[in-house]
Input
Amino acid sequence: MKILGKITILLCGSLLLFFTSDFPDFGDANSPASLHLSPYFIEHTLEDTAVPNVVTSVLADYRGYDTMFETTVILTAGLACFLLLRIPKRAVKNRYYLHEPTGVTLRFEGDKYPQESDVFKRIDSSWVPYDIIINFTCRLLIHFIQIFALYVVAHGHHSPGGGFQGGVVLGASVILFAISGNLRAAIKRFGEKTAALFSATGVFIYAGTAALCMVLGENFIDYAALAPILGSDRIMARSHGIFIVEIGVAVAVMAVMIWIYYNLSSAGKQDEGL
Amino acid sequence: MIIPIDLIILVLIIVSAIAAITVPDLLSSAVILGAYSFLLCLLWTVMGAVDVAFTEATVGAGVSTVFCVAAIFHTSRRTKD
Output
C-alpha cells in the first residue's frame, strides 16, 4: 500500500511538472491573461474608480462577488470552529487559585470557588504564570499594531493592503494580548458574543452596501449608485464604496480570527488556555 | 541580479517544506511551516505581487502559526494507547 501511494504521488507530480511546461512564461505579454483583462484593468481603473491601487479596485469592485463570498467563507470557518469545539464552561472540573498573601496554590473542585476576590488569583492548570517583561512589552506594542492595522485598512486605496490584511493584523493584536496575559482577560475585553456579532456585522456591511446599490435601481455591487447618498460624483462614489466594503471585510476577518483563536486555544471551554 | 535571489529563496522553500513534514516534533513542524510561509512571502515580493505577499505574511506566517501552536498546546507528547 505504501509503495502504491508513492507511485501515485510520483505519477501525479511528474504529470503536473510535465504540463507546467505548457503554461505561459512568467511575465509573458502574449499570454491570454495579459491580453484581454489585465490591460483593461490597468488602463481604466483610475478613470473608472479613482483608486490608484489596481489590486484593491479589482478585488472590491470589478470582482466584488469574489471578495463577498470570501468573507462569507471566513464567517463559515469561524462558525464551523464554534460548532465543532465549543462546550459549556461547566465542564471545567478543577480550578486553581493562588492565595497571594501566602503564595499557596489551592485546587477547588466542583462549583465552590472564590468569586472576584482580592486575595485569590485564578491561575491556569496547564500554563505557567506569565512573565512580566513579556506582558509589559506586548502591552506597549499592541497600540502600535492596532494603529498600523487601521492604517492598512484606510490606506488600501494607495498602497498594498486592505480590509483582509488590516483585519488579520487587528485580530492578531487581540490574540497577542491573550497570549501575553491570559485568555480570560482577553475574553473580558473582547467577548465571545462580541466576536460573533462583529463577524456577522462585517458580512452584513458588505452585502448590505451591495444590496443598497440594487435598491437604488442599479446592479448589485455597482457602487456608482451610491453617489446621491455619499454626496459625490459617480466615480468617487465607487472609491468610497470600496472603502465601506473594506471596513466590512476588516471587521468580519478580525472577529473571526479572534473567535477561532478563543475556541482553539481553550479547546472550546473559553475558560483557560494558551 | 534578481534571478539568484529568486533561486535561493526557492531552494530554501523546498528545504523548509521537506523539513516540516519530516521533523518528528509537532511544535517544530509548526514553526518551520511559519518559516516556509515567510519565505513564500519573500518570493512573492520578489515577483512583484506585494498584496499577496502581505496576506501571506499576516495570515500564513502570523495567525495560522499561532492557531497551529494553540492546537498543539492541547496535545500530549505520547499517545495513551
Observations:
- Chain B has one domain: 3-72.
- DSSP finds three helices and no strands in chain B.
- Chain B has a mean pLDDT of 87.
- Helices of chain B lie at 3-22, 26-47, 50-72.
